[in-house]
Amino acid sequence: MAHVTVHRDDVALEEPMLVEGLPGIGLVGKIAADHLVSAFEMTHYASVHCDGLPRVAVYQKGETGVRSPVRIYADEDRDLLVLSSDVPVSPKSAEHFVDCVTEWFQDHDVTPIYLSGLPAEKGDVPDLAGIATGGAADLLAEAGIEAPGQDGAVTGPTGALIYEAERRDLDSVGLVVESNRQFPDPEAARIILLNGVEPLTGVEVETDSLVEQAEEISEAKSQLAQQMQQASDESTSAEPLGMYQ
């Protein structure tokens, strides 16, 4: 049965914001989510067992235990959640995953922040834009995050999550940042954290290490990035709408 299993009933959250980190273009969400979990030493709060997710057992170097490939981490002091995934979500299974996760967000008064890379030839600083569902446009205005400068569409499982939030009239924010199409992009993840997640959540995020460790991060994520390229229909991405006309 599809469900989210909470492991830590001792963690008290009020109306948390959640940063989504599904693999996508430039692995922007994945890198940003992993950085938050590491920087804040977040607690493994819940495991996601939604229908359609790959049934794989994830293990870590130096540890004998295994865990679900899709997990939710919590920081009680910051009232913050992070959705972390070690595997791509197949578009064929996205409907089941989206229904399952969105239902849990709704039941637990979670406001999700969805992250997506926009393939682009970047300048010195990648451009960042925000979109919203429900009444979350006010959050973007308060954070000083501008609307997109062109028509576009967020695809993949993240796009499906935003679509479902809009359908249910739930508050959610989508952050779109210019990103490298082929390779892991720590700089794009840094910008989305610094100029997007930080002002939205009011949580100060250290991001210098993302630049300092850019080569190391890129090497560590390169295998997953290659998998995403080979299965591009599974990859979350923002694309100019003109490409579909």
From TrEMBL:
SUPFAM superfamilies: Cgl1923-like (SSF159659). It comes from the Archaea. Residues 214-245 are annotated as: Disordered. Residues 220-238 have a biased composition (Polar residues). This is Proteasome assembly chaperone family protein.
